[in-house]
């Protein structure tokens, strides 16, 4: 009985590890670790509901377009139009931090 429980727990850990990976890691999907793909959390930007809806739409379009320098530039430009200067500065800093961390690993 103990072995069965141990197997179930091990299976749960494996399943959790499989589903805990980054979703939307654009650089990993494209196989190019040198490009910045911004998949930062918007939760810490204190967005209004209108801003959140617009950013969700922009991000969905970005993921649909695929990962390229052009789509990344368009995504950042559209985000700049939606966010305040302070929000965009924080957003951009997080994007650059994620990009740098991904290229170092």
Q: Return the string of H and E elements.
A: HHHHH
- Helix/strand/pairing category: mainly alpha
Structural Rg: 18 Å
Helix content: over 70%
Regions with little confidence, pLDDT below 50 for 5+ residues: 22-37
The dominant shape is: elongated
Mean of pLDDT? 73
How is the main sheet built?
Answer: none
Please sum up the structure shown:
It is built from five helices and no strands. By secondary structure, it is mainly α.
Task: Explain how this protein is built.
With 105 residues, the protein is mostly helical. The protein is built from five helices and no strands. About 15% of the residues have low confidence. It is elongated. The protein has one domain.
Question: Any descriptors?
Answer:
single chain, 105 residues, mainly alpha, 5 helices, 70% helix, elongated
